[in-house]
Design goal:
Helix content: 25-40%
Order of helices and strands: EHEHEEHEHEHEHEHHEHEEHEH
Strand order of the largest sheet: 10-9-11-1-12
CATH architecture of the largest domain: 3-Layer(aba) Sandwich
CATH class of the largest domain: Alpha Beta
């Protein structure tokens, strides 16, 4: 029997509008076109979502060149470089671009800055799909900045015109620190009119912060490759609260719960709510009766399906 007496559910948590749109895009494409529908990379960074869609007939490929000529290909929510679109055109793919509109906004900004002669500082994590796609918009004009230390040691000619953009799934606090250094070192640096970190990433981090005073431990439901899920773990740990990332209830280690009375639960923006239900059931099975929601803000953001799919569905009367 665990010592836990209460579970608090952070709200908002789980799916954001961009993830809902991306997952629905693959589901509707499968219904409309029939299997197989090819998806470049994981549609969102959650292994449960990927497995569910594979069971319905989606085929996940690493690169668009792994899909056969003429295939229906969905691009993931993280966005792609222009070279990927060119490659798909050469293969006559029927492309449905499920890039999150908030990621597209960053791509457009980066491209505009570069076209105006700016060197674009992209704050983000090397190798993340979103960063790879954004850098692909203007590779010769873009410099990746990952840490405060890198921002402090950037060596650029004095007359360099600078602008910055950021990955949408970063730590709000860490990114603010990096931006602070860039503004101090380069007072004339251009900034986006509105911050690039997406509303859902910010809201989930604030919801965790709001929860911390009431909990002894935080469980974040999300896959290892989910940037925003990892940032939620870091947010709790930075405040001195122990926190663990789990894909589902099977990864909970009961040893973590020794002496713990109140557990907080949240989930990354690509984790379906059914995983939260499964974790709650895991605690109920161990005698925990008090499971409550701890709400901070309400989210009402929605995004329409990609234009390519909407046109097809409208033509078919779906």
């Amino acid at each position: 029997m665990v010592s836990v007496k209460r579970v608090l559910l952070a709200s908002p948590r789980g799916y954001c509008a961009g993830v809902e749109r991306a997952v629905e895009t693959v589901e509707r494409a499968l219904e409309h076109y029939g299997a197989p529908v090819y998806v470049r990379k994981q549609i969102v960074h959650n292994i449960h979502v990927v497995r569910d869609l594979e069971a319905r007939g989606a085929i996940f490929v690493e690169e668009e060149t792994d899909a056969p000529p003429g295939a229906t290909v969905v691009y993931s929510a993280h966005g792609v470089a222009p070279s990927v679109h060119a490659s798909s055109r050469a293969l006559a793919h029927d492309v449905i671009d499920a890039t999150c509109p908030l990621v597209t906004k960053v791509h457009v900004q980066a491209k505009r800055y570069a076209a105006a002669g700016y060197t674009v500082l992209l704050i983000g994590h090397e190798g993340h799909e979103e960063v790879v796609g954004t850098m692909g918009e203007a590779p010769e004009s873009t410099v990746l900045v990952q840490t405060v230390e890198e921002a402090e040691t950037l060596d650029l000619p004095a007359d360099t015109k600078l602008a910055y953009v950021t990955q949408t799934t970063l730590s709000v606090d860490e990114t603010s620190e990096i931006i602070g250094v860039l503004r101090r070192r380069f007072p004339n640096i251009r900034a986006p009119r509105k911050e690039d970190i997406c509303y859902a990433t910010s809201n989930r981090q604030w919801a965790v912060k709001d929860l911390l005073a009431e909990i002894d431990l935080l469980l974040v439901i999300g896959s290892r490759n989910s940037s925003n899920s990892n940032r939620l773990v870091e947010t709790a740990r930075a405040a001195g609260t122990q926190a663990h990332l789990v894909d589902d209830e099977t990864e909970i280690d009961e040893a973590w719960l020794d002496g713990v009375e109140t557990v907080g639960i949240t989930s990354g923006a690509s984790a379906p709510e059914k995983l939260v239900t499964r974790v709650c059931d895991w605690f109920r099975a161990r005698g925990v009766v008090s499971i409550e929601s701890h709400s901070t803000v309400e989210e009402d953001v929605t995004f329409r399906l990609p234009i390519e799919l909407r046109r097809e569905l409208e033509l078919a009367g779906s």
